[in-house]
Each structure stands twice: as structure tokens, then as C-alpha cells.
Automatic annotation (TrEMBL):
Residues 417-436 have a biased composition (Acidic residues). Residues 62-92, 406-444 are annotated as: Disordered. Belongs to the UbiA prenyltransferase family. Pfam families: UbiA (PF01040). It comes from the Eukaryota. It is a multi-pass membrane protein. This is Protoheme IX farnesyltransferase, mitochondrial. Coiled coil: none annotated. GO terms for cellular component: mitochondrial membrane. The chain crosses the membrane at residues 125-143, 149-169, 190-212, 218-235, 242-260, 272-291, 312-333, 339-359, 371-388. Keywords: Heme biosynthesis, Membrane, Mitochondrion, Transferase, Transit peptide, Transmembrane, Transmembrane helix. It comes from Podila minutissima. HAMAP family: CyoE_CtaB (MF_00154). InterPro entries: Protohaem_IX_farnesylTrfase, UbiA_prenyltransferase, UbiA_prenylTrfase_CS, UbiA_sf.
Length: 444
């Protein structure tokens, strides 16, 4: 007589291979994590050779003590119902040829989890965005404080991680339809949606709290607002309106402003200029990328300019590449950089503009690819030039001749307070009392 303890567990390596190839381009990569984490529960109704996704594959043999859950079986399933079709220890119907001997199913290791969390955070994109925050911090005229920079970088990276994990939590049905994204962790079901959601929530709360406690409330508010903008506004908007690209550009513009705010505790015109630079840059960058992904976007139902209005897609890229010229020229005007930045920054802008004009004229895969790779190089180059030509506090002080005109915030204001402190005289109260006593004796 058999009971529940006679359940046979099956490691479904070959079954999974079939499943992978139906949905994934890179089964080798999947195989790293999938066999340990995504097994299938089929039980008595395991007739289909296409496994469902769940926890483990289990088969039972005929049992008189455990009646099959026949109410949940279809007519077809009943054909293979162990209670009606006696089976012994042979392979259940539909699984001939598979190795069904018991094998240990290992839990994910720490390195599996690291790999899962890196995927959930879209680590490479996150690192690029975090660099723009650090650039915003580095562009302030004040000296850097390492503890603040560390807290800013960690807090921002956690907020970005959270935003990207929420985005992936929402998008598996659409990601599964695009070859670029169908390998993503939640499409593969290597972790449960609840696990991903918990990870997103913890990193979001942790990042915002760290920014509030160790940087300043303004930076924390920007981080939290941007998280909500990306996860709750941009992400659903991708399937609703092409305006999503403008909203996404705001999301990309805020991180360098957070860097500036972390140092100055304010959103000065310089912070807005940094934000606008990142905002404008994203159109040639994203629209050229979207051009070569338009078949994918169309399949998944995303409303992208490249799909719905390809001419507009190219025109917008050109328009914002042009806008980069006045923005770069504004930097020396605002005393962020020397005028040399306007010279070499605009040479770099010229290259970007030529790429965007080419894409606008020809609108083909080659010009889109050239513009996309050009934009990838543009961003680090323009930020590096900006820092190279940056005006420090000293430069500005020398030019305007007075510290009071530099800024009322951050260390400049602190320095001014220290100067004001020097105006107070040191008075010894005992000496003062003695003097008063002398005067009293004389007058008496
Ligand atoms: C501080 C903070 C919270 C910053 C957020 C930074 C952030 C997540 C920037 C990404 C900007 C963006 C529009 C990416 C595209 O997402 P997509 O959904 O179109 O990309 P996909 O197609 O690869 O999923």
C-alpha cells in the first residue's frame, strides 16, 4: 500500500529544456539558475508534457488510501488517472524517456541570489544613472565630503534598484514578448513576484531613509518622487501614450539634480541645467535605440514613437540634439565652467547633431545604430569635459572679488559665518568685574 510518503520527486532538466527553448533565446544562461529554482508541480493530473511553472514536479503511484482529486480532472486527464489506469513504478504517461529518479533539489546559493538581485536592479543601467548623480555632486563648487558622497551614491543606487525591480514586477507579460527582455528574471520565474516586490520595497525604503538621514531631506524627496514617477507613471504609460518618452526623460534628468542638491541643499539654476542636459540627451539616445527595437515594441503593445510615428521619432531626436547646444553654452554663463567648455562641448555637440541629422534624413537601421552608439559615448565625454572645465569656489571668488557673491548655501555660507564670528571680541568677565570695582572705589 502506498501513501503520500511514496511521492517521487523528479528533477525535470530535460523537460525544462523544452520549456526554455519555447520562450528564451539563451538556454545556457537560463540553465544556470532555472534548474534549481523553477520546477513544476503536476501531481495526478500530470498528463501534459508541457510543464506548468510552479515549484516541483511530483508524481504519485496508484494508491487506495489517497483518492485522486478527480473533481479537478478533465476527461482527458481521467485517461491517465492512476486510480483508473493502474501504474506501478513505471514512468507516468507523457513522461517516457525522462529520468524520474529522485534527485536532490538544491536551494539557490548566495551567488544565485546576487545574480538574481543584479538582474532585478538592471545593474548596468543603474550604474550609469548613479554616475550621473555623482557627476551632479562633483559639479558643485564646494569641496566633496566623502561620507556624504558615499551616502548619496548608496542611497541613490538603492532607489534606482527599487525603481527597476518594480518596473520588472509589472512588465513580465510584455517583457516575455520581446526578444530583448524575454530572458528577464521574472519572465523566467527564477524568483516569485512576491520576492521581487519585497526586494523593491525594501531597497526603496532603505534608499530613501539613507538619503534623508545622511544626505538631506531634499535629496531624499527627489529620490522618492523619481521612484514613483518611474514605477507608477512611466511604466504603465508605455502602453498608453507616446508621451511616455517625455516622462521617462524627466526620470533620467532627476538623478544629477539629486547630486547637486546633496551638496548645496537647494535646486540652484545649475542643478536645473544639469537636469536639462540629461533630459535632452535622452531623446537621441532612446529614440535611436527604439528604432531598432520597433518590431519588439510593436509585438508587446508598447506605444513608442518609433512604432506609431517614425518620422516624429527621428525629428524629436534632431530637435533635442539641437537643444544641447544652448544648454552646453549656458554652463559658462552660469559660472559652472570656463568658456572653454562652450568651445569643446559644442564640438562634441556637433558630432551628435550630425548623427541625429543623418538619422532624420535616412531613418534606417544603420544611422539609428550610429546615433545610439554616438549618444552612449556623448554622455561620459560631455560630463568629463564639464568637470575638466569646472570652476571651483576659488576661481569664482577671484573673479567676483567677494565671497558673498558666490552662494548663500553649503560651505560658502559656512565660511561666511566663520568670518562673521571673528568680529566678536573676546572679553574676560573677571577682568571686567575688577575694572568695575576700581571705578566704584575711585568714585567713592
Ligand atoms: C533615483 C531614481 C529612482 C532614479 C530612477 C532612474 C531610472 C530607473 C532611470 C531609467 C530611465 C528610463 C526611462 C529607462 C527606460 O525604462 P524602460 O522600462 O523603457 O526599459 P526596459 O524596456 O528595458 O524595461
Amino acid at each position: 500500500m502506498l501513501s503520500r510518503s511514496h511521492l517521487i520527486r523528479v528533477a525535470p532538466a530535460r523537460i525544462q529544456h523544452r520549456w526554455f527553448t519555447s520562450s528564451c533565446t539563451n538556454p545556457h544562461r537560463l540553465a544556470r539558475i532555472q534548474p534549481r529554482t523553477s520546477l513544476v508541480t503536476l501531481g495526478y493530473s500530470a498528463k501534459s508534457s508541457t510543464p506548468l511553472n510552479g515549484s516541483r514536479i511530483m508524481f504519485t503511484r496508484a494508491s487506495s488510501s489517497i483518492p485522486p482529486t478527480s473533481t479537478s480532472l478533465s476527461d482527458n486527464d481521467k485517461d491517465s488517472d492512476p486510480s483508473t489506469t493502474p501504474t506501478t513504478s513505471t514512468t507516468p504517461a507523457g513522461f517516457q524517456g525522462y529520468d524520474i529518479r529522485w534527485k536532490e533539489v538544491k536551494s539557490p546559493t548566495i551567488s544565485d541570489y546576487i545574480s538574481i538581485y543584479l538582474d532585478l536592479s538592471k545593474a548596468r543601467l543603474g550604474a550609469l544613472v548613479t554616475l550621473t548623480t555623482m557627476a551632479g555632486y562633483a559639479m558643485t563648487p564646494m569641496g566633496a565630503s566623502l561620507p556624504t558622497l558615499f551616502a548619496l551614491t548608496t542611497g541613490t543606487a538603492l532607489c534606482i534598484t527599487s525603481a527597476n525591480a518594480y518596473n520588472q514586477f509589472v512588465e513580465p507579460p510584455y517583457d516575455a514578448q520581446m526578444s530583448r527582455t524575454r530572458n528577464r528574471i521574472l519572465v523566467r520565474k527564477a524568483v516569485s513576484p512576491l520576492h521581487a516586490w519585497s526586494f523593491a520595497t525594501l531597497t526603496g525604503l532603505g534608499g530613501t531613509a539613507l538619503l534623508a538621514a545622511a544626505v538631506n531631506p531634499l535629496t531624499a524627496a527627489l529620490g522618492a518622487a523619481n521612484l514613483v514617477l518611474y514605477a507608477a507613471v512611466y511604466t504603465p504609460m508605455k502602453r498608453v501614450s507616446i508621451a511616455n518618452t517625455w516622462v521617462g526623460a524627466v526620470v533620467g534628468a532627476i538623478p544629477p539634480m539629486m547630486g547637486w542638491a546633496a551638496c548645496t541643499n537647494s535646486l540652484d539654476p545649475e542643478a536645473w541645467l544639469l537636469g536639462l542636459l540629461l533630459y535632452a540627451w535622452q531623446f537621441p539616445h532612446f529614440n535611436s535605440l527604439a528604432w531598432n527595437l520597433r518590431a519588439d515594441y510593436s509585438k508587446a503593445g508598447y506605444r513608442m514613437m518609433a512604432v506609431t510615428d517614425p518620422k516624429l521619432n527621428a525629428r524629436v531626436s534632431l530637435r533635442y540634439s539641437l537643444a544641447l547646444i544652448p544648454l552646453v553654452t549656458l554652463a559658462p554663463y552660469l559660472d559652472m565652467t570656463s568658456w572653454w567648455f562652450a568651445v569643446d562641448g559644442n564640438i562634441v555637440n556637433g558630432v551628435m547633431l550630425a548623427g541625429a541629422a543623418n538619422f532624420w534624413r535616412k531613418r534606417d537601421d544603420k544611422t539609428a545604430r550610429q546615433l545610439f552608439f554616438g549618444s552612449l559615448i556623448y554622455l561620459p565625454v560631455i560630463l568629463a569635459l564639464m568637470m575638466f572645465h569646472k570652476k571651483g569656489k576659488q576661481d569664482i571668488v577671484q573673479e567676483v572679488g567677494s565671497l558673498e557673491q558666490v552662494s548663500e548655501s553649503g560651505s560658502a555660507a559656512q565660511f561666511k559665518e566663520e568670518e562673521d564670528d571673528d568680529e566678536y571680541e573676546y572679553v574676560d568677565e573677571d577682568e571686567e568685574d575688577e575694572e568695575e570695582a576700581h571705578v566704584a572705589v575711585k568714585t567713592a
